[in-house]
Amino acid sequence: MTTIQRVIKSTIKVDDVESIIEKLTLERDENEIALSNLIDTKVKKPDIPESIFNAKYREYSDRLKVLTAEINKLELEHVKNYDTKKRMDKIGEILGKKNLVIDELDSEILSTFIYKMISVSPNEIVC
Question: Which helix (H) or strand (E) holds 55?
């Protein structure tokens, strides 16, 4: 691995935010299915006591709100942690200290630069 690649990799901090987001999203999806099943059950069997239905409905709804808020918070934090300009400035600073410049760009160096790209909108990409 070249010095440039080591410098680039040292500026990318891999954390487990993505896996946490994935787990929370899975839990949220399962919660949505459970809520949907609860409603379907109530429609098919209207004799279910209202108090039981309301308690379960409130439980699923509240958990859904909590999970959605937590996922949104983590996604915003994750995007901030991968601020491209800040990372590129850091790479430039480290290369500058070592009097290095990028004089050759191959696919491995490019893939190291582009560790993760998130499309925020058609005209905005966050790395």
Answer: helix 50-81
Q: CA-CA distance, 12 to 118, in Å (whole number)? A: 15
Q: For residues 31 and 58, is the Cβ–Cβ distance under 8 A? A: no
For the chain, the domains span: 3-126
Cα separation, 102 vs 92, in Å, equals 10
pTM over 0.85: no
Q: How many residues does the chain have?
A: 127
> pLDDT (tens digit, 9 = 90+) per residue, 89-101?
777 777 677 666 6
> Do the beta carbons of residue 24 and residue 2 sit within 8 Å?
no
Query: What is the rounded distance in angstroms from the CA atom of residue 51 to the CA atom of residue 74?
Result: 34
Tokens of 37: 């099943």
